[in-house]
Design a protein that fits this description.
globular; about 0% strand
C-alpha cells in the first residue's frame, strides 16, 4: 500500500522531477531493509540499492544521489535537492489523506511494532508525531504542502489523542 501510494503521488509531480528514474529507484529501495528494532534501516537500504545499481552499471553520481534520497528518509529534513523533497513528501503523503486511510496506515505501523508493549510504543509514537507537528511544514514542496498539510496536521493531532 505504501509503495503504491508513493508511486501514485510521484506520478502526479513527475514533470517537476529532474531525475525520475533515480527517484523511483530510491522509492523502491528506501524500505527494502526494515526491522522495527534496528536504527540503521536506511543505511542498509542505501547499501542494497548501491549493490543493485552497481550491477546495472548505473552512473556513479546517480548511485550516490539515490543513496542520498534513501538516507534522507531517516530524518525527513528538507533537502537542497528538489527531487529528494518530492520523495520525502510522497513518503509522508498518507497522513494527509482522509482519516480512514490514515487510520489504517498507523494501525499497520502499530502492528509492525507489536514486539514492544504499549508502555514503550506509545511514548515513542508520540515523540515521532510531535516531531512532525513541530516542523514549520510537514511537506517540503508547495505541491504537497498545498494538497496535504492541513489534513496531515489534523490527522496527526487526532492520532496523538489515542496515546495517553
Amino acid at each position: 500500500m505504501h509503495l503504491q501510494n508513493m508511486c501514485y503521488e510521484l506520478q502526479i509531480v513527475k514533470p517537476l522531477i529532474a531525475d525520475h528514474d533515480t527517484v523511483m529507484f530510491a522509492l523502491f529501495y528506501h524500505d527494502i531493509v526494515y526491522k522495527a528494532t534496528a536504527k540503521n534501516n536506511e543505511e542498509k537500504s542505501a547499501e542494497k540499492a548501491i549493490e543493485v545499481l552497481n550491477f546495472l552499471n548505473y552512473p556513479e553520481e546517480k548511485k550516490l544521489l539515490c543513496a542520498q534520497h534513501i538516507l534522507a528518509t531517516k530524518s525527513h529534513d528538507t533537502s537542497s535537492n528538489a527531487d529528494t523533497n518530492f520523495l520525502l513528501d510522497a513518503d509522508m503523503s498518507i497522513p494527509g489523506k482522509p482519516w480512514p486511510e490514515y487510520e489504517a496506515y498507523f494501525k499497520a505501523v502499530c502492528k509492525e511494532y507489536a514486539i514492544y508493549p504499549d508502555f514503550l510504543y506509545n511514548p515513542g509514537r508520540r515523540k515521532v508525531l510531535h516531531y512532525f507537528l513541530s516542523m514549520d511544514a510537514i511537506y517540503k514542496t508547495p505541491e504537497f504542502k498545498d494538497r496535504y498539510e492541513k489534513v496531515a496536521r489534523t490527522n496527526i493531532e487526532k492520532e496523538l489523542l489515542l496515546y495517553h
